[in-house]
Design goal:
Elements: H1 5-34, H2 91-103, H3 105-110, H4 112-121, H5 131-159, E1 161-162, H6 173-185, E2 186-189, E3 194-196, H7 198-210, H8 222-253
Antiparallel strand pairs: 1-2, 2-3
Helix pairs in contact: 1-2, 1-5, 2-5, 4-5, 5-7, 6-8, 7-8
Length: 255
C-alpha cells in the first residue's frame, strides 16, 4: 500500500529545507568574498586636485585621481532576475531567481498543462482523474521544480555560475532561437563568458531521482526519473524562450 500524499509531502519539505540551507550557506560565502574590497575605496574629498600648468589650483583644468577612472564603472546590479543582464549575480538575486523560477506567474501557469494532461490520461494512476488528483499532480511538479532550482542556485553559487537567462533581442529570429537552445546547456560566469551549466546538469537529474522517494509507486523508478529529467531540460528551454520573446511580444501588444 502506497504512502499517502501528506507523507510524501513531509519528506519533500525536509529535502527542500536542506536545499534552502545549502543556498543560504553558499550565499553567505559569496557575501563574505565580495565584501572585502569595499573598505579599500578612497573618498573623493581625501584626494587633492592637481594644479594647472600656470600654478593656479583649479579642479576643472585637470582631472583628479578621484574622478579619473581607468575604466568605466560598472552599474550596480539590480535585484531583478530576468531584466538584469549583468554577468555577476548576488546571493539575494539567486534567492529571487529561485522564487521567480519556481512560483512566478509564468511557472504557475505552465504547471497547469502537465497536471491537466496527467489527469486526463490518469498518469500516475494512483492520483485518479478528479480535481484532487489534478492538485496532487500540480503540487508534485511544483515541489520538484522548487527543489531542482534550489539545488542549481546553491551549486551555482559555489561554482560561480549565473543561472539567469540573458536575452539577446539584437539578434535575428534564428539567432535568438539558437540562444534559447544554447543557454539551456551553457550559462554565464562572472567574466561574461559562457561555460557548460554544470549546476543544472547536476540539479535536474538529481532532483528527479530524489523525488522517487515521495512519488507514487508507479512512477518512482529509474526509467521515469530519466523521463522527467528530459522534461526538466525541455522546461528550462521553454522558460528561456519565454524570457527571450515575451518582452518583444508584450511591446507589440502595448501591455
Amino acid at each position: 500500500m502506497r504512502n499517502p500524499f501528506s507523507s510524501r509531502l513531509s519528506k519533500l519539505m525536509l529535502v527542500f529545507g536542506a536545499s534552502c540551507a545549502m543556498a543560504a550557506v553558499a550565499s553567505a560565502q559569496g557575501a563574505i568574498g565580495t565584501g572585502t574590497s569595499s573598505s579599500l575605496n578612497l573618498s573623493a574629498s581625501a584626494l587633492p586636485a592637481q594644479p594647472e600648468a600656470n600654478g593656479s589650483a583649479s579642479a576643472n583644468a585637470l582631472p583628479t585621481a578621484a574622478n579619473a577612472s581607468p575604466r568605466a564603472a560598472r552599474p550596480a546590479p539590480s535585484t531583478g532576475s530576468w531584466s538584469d543582464n549583468a554577468d555577476e549575480i548576488t546571493g539575494e538575486q539567486r534567492v529571487i531567481w529561485v522564487a521567480e523560477s519556481s512560483v512566478g506567474w509564468s511557472s504557475l501557469l505552465y504547471g497547469v498543462i502537465p497536471a491537466g494532461v496527467g489527469t486526463a490520461l490518469n498518469h500516475p494512476r494512483e492520483y485518479g482523474t478528479h480535481w484532487e488528483g489534478f492538485g496532487d499532480r500540480y503540487g508534485m511538479r511544483l515541489a520538484g521544480l522548487a527543489v531542482s532550482n534550489t539545488m542549481e542556485a546553491s551549486l551555482g553559487a559555489i561554482w560561480h555560475e549565473n543561472p539567469r537567462y540573458k536575452p539577446e533581442p539584437e539578434k535575428s529570429f534564428g539567432g535568438r532561437v539558437e540562444s534559447v537552445i544554447y543557454q539551456t546547456f551553457f550559462t554565464r560566469r562572472a567574466d561574461g563568458n559562457f561555460e557548460p551549466a554544470y549546476a543544472r546538469f547536476v540539479a535536474i537529474p538529481a532532483s528527479n531521482f530524489l523525488s522517487n522517494t515521495w512519488r507514487a509507486n508507479s512512477e518512482a523508478d529509474t526509467s521515469h526519473a530519466f523521463e522527467r529529467t528530459g522534461y526538466g531540460f525541455a522546461g528550462a528551454m521553454g522558460s528561456n524562450a519565454f524570457h527571450e520573446f515575451w518582452p518583444s511580444i508584450k511591446s507589440h501588444l502595448h501591455l
